[in-house]
């Protein structure tokens, strides 16, 4: 019996087992299969999740048809950047510098002494959707919105895992000897919905360490994924004797330390991103590289019991975190120094279903952590006492791909008895301290060459699992990243990405949303083309086709950098534009027409500083002052000889949509379907008002 002989109901049951890409393909087989797929809400919902970069929440009680309706409404609202659903979040406390935004929850610290610039006495959280009220009515009062957690101790930092565990982790300090500034650093684990110690934590209070602590001279970061709690402390105390940089991996359910890494150099790194519950990426400042560490074995290993006479696990017994793969960033020019690198990727990856402790029944879907965009800010000091700021965007999946290729290469070498060979390539890197390298070719991409430093030390009995494999920037970065020239003030707030979107409020009074979802871009371009309304045919729209375009060179000694607006130059020396591949890179998303060669040398791309009544958008239409859109398919180039040894090329496609905001925000943050606008006082030290814009309406 053939497939087409089955009734539609059975075909649907079979199709539900297929991957989203297969569902797209079977619609091309015949009209009947096309009708079956297009007329079934569950199958259409699966396809829409895949294209939108979302994952389903099986705990939500909504039927597939309703989930599909909500998802499509939100995607359309994001594309139009519809900000009509607005409310102001009332503040009933004086916010401190601590904040977090994830899983539909905004957290703000409270500082009781309003004149102070440091210190957080307690924290307040609010579920953002509750601020909009129900059925379109007015939101409830502030007393019923905010939940206060007061531990009676000073708070240093927080971490949230609301949707997966209903968990809030609060880092506190309390002085053992205040005269000597000797303090106990502890992690308090609470259930967010009740404010009580989390029932799944065997140790609701995890003691990190006793240290010399001076408020304002220590930064802490923690992230939670599955059973993993990753804790980073940078202690800048002037007389610290222990390692000032400590990264510790905890199993938060047992309270046991699983892996660690410590440095005596306080400038080593100050942020990280979890790629999975057992993989972390560290932006290392001195080497200007991303180190990817895998600690699955450490998580699975049973923790040794405390030594005789010790009440808790000794840090000396915790295994060290091993670097598996190193991804180099663009090479700096001599004299340029990285001062700081900060990164974030939201939402965090989830553990297996058995790890989750809190079923979220509200949200029908979430942004897929695997394809979420990681943002990396680089603050670089160059000679003559000036600095530059850059922002790099890369998807979590691109970093994981490089890591898994390194694992596959190790496995192949181990199985076939292959050892690294001395370098024999003419394009040997020129860095003096990298004089000894060993090259290996990747098993999947023959153009990928992993390197191993100090190849003379490789012996036949050496375990390659302990030897980091390195990829140069040119081998991994240009196709899968997008770089921007940025400004220092714009990098103050790090919660500016969620899923594959990045939000930025500009001094021009416009709110910009960047969408790096290659699948969604491809579908949108095709839909507009089928409607005979190609992108660029409407007021305020532009499309930058395949080609090479340049950022303007910057000069001067000021830290005030140019905005995220690109004035680009087409490179006439390059050959025709590349195509975007099936993953959304510049091999598959090319439009039918190639970029004209020998055309105008300089042309402007994106928003131009002209009045609303001005006409002319480059396509014969007046510019819409309310909404503008730019589709970027070309390769952008940053040329700053005082910073980089070579120009930085990046090609990850994106759609940039902007609208004018009538209010004076200091910054904009983003969660799943909510944009948060922040208003600050005159000194830009304290939040005075929080404005919420819900994109696409309620979720139920």
From TrEMBL:
Q: Where is this region: Disordered?
A: 607-626
InterPro entries cross-referenced by the UniProt entry: F-box-like_dom_sf (IPR036047), F-box_dom (IPR001810)
**Residue span(s) of domain F-box:** 1-46
Q: Which residues cross the membrane?
A: none
Q: What is this protein called?
A: F-box domain-containing protein
**Source organism per UniProt:** Lentinus tigrinus ALCF2SS1-6
